[in-house]
Amino acid sequence: xxxxxxxxxxxxxxxxxxxxxxxxxxxxxxxxQEAEYVHxxxxxxxxxxxxxxxxxxxxxGYMTVEEYExxxxxxxxxxxxxEVPKQPTPADMVYVPQPAYKIVKYNNPPGGTExxxxxxxxxxxxxxxxxxxxxxxxxxxxxxxxxYPDSASTACDLFVINLxxxxxxxxxxxTANIIHRLSDPILSTDKNIDNYFTFxxxxxxxxxxxxxxxxxxxxxxxTKDGIWRTTPVVYDFNTGVxxxxxxxxDAISYYWEENRGINLDEKRWDIYPLGFxxxxxxxxxxxxxxxxxxxxxxxxxxxxxFTGEQSRLVSFEPDLIDISMNxxxxxxxxxxxxxxxEIEQKQLERIEKENAKLKKKQEKDELKALxxxxxxxxxxxxxxxxxxxxxxxxxxxxxxxxxxxEIMIKYNEIKAKNDAKEQKRLQKLKEKExxxxxxxxxxxxxxxx
Length: 449
Prior knowledge:
By secondary structure, this protein is an alpha+beta fold. It has helices at about 1-20, 25-55, 65-70, 120-125, 170-175, 245-260, 340-400, 405-449; strands spanning about 100-105, 125-130, 130-135, 140-150, 155-160, 185-190, 200-205, 215-220, 225-235, 240-245, 270-275, 285-290, 295-305, 310-315, 330-335. Strands 2, 3, 4, 5 and 6 form a 5-stranded antiparallel β-sheet that branches. A 4-stranded antiparallel β-sheet has the order 7-8-9-10, with no helix packed on it. The radius of gyration is 43 Å and the shape is elongated.
């Protein structure tokens, strides 16, 4: 029993002795380790950002959610800049015909412009037709035609694009883009699709001489039956009001029934808006005609005020009527001469070669500057971390030898001495560098002499 008690006491003493030898944690080292860990994390973030910038120099489509949200944020479409459309031509292409353009009068011959629908219209179900530019080149008006396959019918809107200030009138028209059009159309047809094969279109005829009014012809008909009715419409830009001049049809019907005994309601007839009267700018001129199956019969040249008032018969001779031509349009005038294209090809080869060299140099300089910026940032972070660690070590050293307010007093004294030493060291380096530069300048002067 005695030996058992002695064994337990010996084991207890050994346990106490072993426990005294267990090392306690050094909290000073833990703080340093934490600071070093944070420093490495910050360096890793800087490195990741640097590598991401290098990666994004050649776009791949990969992006963060934040970058996607920035790029997909809504933009004001009216402020988007449009460049003149140009077909890209490779330098090794021997000859590519380049179209040449010119500005001509839109309403020439009078009333001759019609909407032409191409084959793709019935596939895309929408088409922007020929536009007309105002006399002062401040706006462009164009019709948009819609196709409804359920009823094989069409409808139309008339939109306005305000032309921006540009280098020339040609440049204004070439840079006109539907992205800059006003949201609401100035004129619209009925969009009811109950009647099968019905078409409704709005075709600009011409501007008035001052550009404040636009004459449009609205055509309604059926693709199986032909045109039913054409109605002149005048839109006043000053008031924003449109006038459907249906009164002119009533006046023509009344004249032929009263003077010739012909009831036009029993005939197939229509009108043909020609434009604004050159002598009376607020009056429009239309030509009425009747279908006969062979040659149309002329029902007279008529004039009417743009509000629909005071319709009058002018003449039965179209050649005697003076009609103004005020709006403009852009047409292809031919192709650029092959000799000019060959000269441009040689110039393009030189430009592409110089641009390739310049681009390569720019990429090299950008990469070099990016590397230098990254290295400088890491160097700065390391210097700040080293200084912070030295400062922490100094505080720990002072805290172990002093207490109370003496800690801060002694710390400030030592800190001031260290800062003074660092300033002297930097001043010596600066003086040394100035001497070196001065020596180089003196040497260059002596060599030049």
